[in-house]
Amino acid sequence: QKEVEQNSGPLSVPEGAIASLNCTYSDRGSQSFFWYRQYSGKSPELIMSIYSNGDKEDGRFTAQLNKASQYVSLLIRDSQPSDSATYLCAVRGRTSYDKVIFGPGTSLSVIP
Amino acid sequence: NAGVTQTPKFRILKIGQSMTLQCTQDMNHNYMYWYRQDPGMGLKLIYYSVGAGITDKGEVPNGYNVSRSTTEDFPLRLELAAPSQTSVYFCASSLRVAGTTGDTQYFGPGTRLTVL
Asked: Do A92 and B98 count as a contact with CB atoms less than 8 A apart?
């Protein structure tokens, strides 16, 4: 059973701080990794994808991947109250035919 | 370009009733998915389809059926509704190309289903 795990939170950070969200996965052959954001009562939307070891930056968001440790993280710099949401980590296996497995999500609250 | 649309938005069923949740996408995506999300939980895959005429089970298929006769439509059928099927149901679609890593899923707005 392939698994994706995340700290459920809630994670609370003050406005302007760095929020760090973590995700581990069990399938060592996984090749594609995604972070989705879900506001309360809304549907998930993709904010970052990463496929290679290292960091990938997009504005205030940085995704970090370490395949040897089977670990992927999302950093949010200069956190804003509008970043308050649940963040879902999703992982796809080694082929383009594999299913995407979602983690349980981490709830983030940014305190003004 | 409407993206992924779902109907209805809300529905209350009595135990033992049946219903079909509709999902349509206009992005010519090959992959389509049905998920359920229980309160405070992540997404659980019910069924998915890799193209018209091809469907497969996900993690939690029991109590559900799907069909995919066209690229655009992927309805989810609930037979003999049970309280355990009370959940929010999301349909999603993506364009997968063999041999590539990209796979952005686009989600519909969801259907909130209550079984009493």
From this structure: no
- In the numeric block, the tokens 């970090």 are attached to A64
Report the distance separating Cα A89 and Cα A4, nearest Å: 8
DSSP 3-state of A100: strand
Residues on chain A touching B102 (C-beta within 8 angstroms): 32, 49
A79 CB neighbour count, 10 Å cutoff: 21
Q: Which position has the token pair 């399938």?
A: A27
For residue A52, the number of C-alpha atoms closer than 13 Å in the C-beta half-sphere is: 5
CB contact under 8 A, A43 and B110: yes
A10-49: burial string, b at 16+ Cβ within 10 Å, e else: ebebeeeeebbbbbbbebeebbbbbbbbbeeeebbebbbb
- A-B Cβ pairs (cutoff 8 Å, strict): 59
Nearest to B41 among A92, A100, A104 (CB): A104
From first to last of its 116 residues, chain B has per-residue pLDDT tens of 789 999 999 999 999 999 999 999 999 999 999 999 998 788 999 999 999 999 999 989 999 999 999 999 999 999 899 999 999 999 999 998 877 777 789 999 999 999 99
